[in-house]
Amino acid sequence: MTVHEASQHNVRLHTNGPEYRQFQDQEGARVSVQGYPGMGTLRFYGPHKLKPGVRCGVELDGPHGKNNGTVGGKIYFECPESHGILVDPLKVTIVERV
């Protein structure tokens, strides 16, 4: 297992790219997301429909997001419009685990 120094995320490499084990079974955890104000809740962790690797789906507390949990016609999670984002796990930090 490798720790990415900039983010202190535990990363395990596998054939489809990195796997961020700290997000597994943590849907509902409180998180902060680099580049977005305030806090949010982790609603999804898993493969992206169109891009390689995994993504974190976050419901932001405020309307600072890009979607409602649906991206490219795929429903990753559900939340109010402009509260959802689907981002690279390197941008997400768990603040309070479930």
Q: How many helical elements?
A: 0
Mean pLDDT: 86
The H-and-E topology, N to C, reads as: EEEEEEEEEE
Whole-angstrom Rg: 13 Å
Separation, N- and C-terminal Cα atoms: 23 Å
Note the main sheet. 5 strands, antiparallel
The assigned structural class equals: mainly beta
The count of β-strands is 10
* β-sheet strand percentage: over 45%
Share of helix, binned: under 10%
Unreliable stretches, pLDDT < 50, 5 or more residues?
Answer: 1-9, 11-15
Using the alpha-carbon principal axes, give the shape. Answer: globular
What would a concise description of this structure say?
With 98 residues, the protein is an all-beta fold. The chain has strands at 2-4, 9-14, 17-19, 30-33, 39-47, 54-60, 70-71, 74-75, 84-87, 92-96.
Write up this protein.
This protein is an all-beta fold and 98 residues long. The chain is built from no helices and ten strands. The chain is globular, with a radius of gyration of 13 Å. It starts with a strand and ends with a strand.
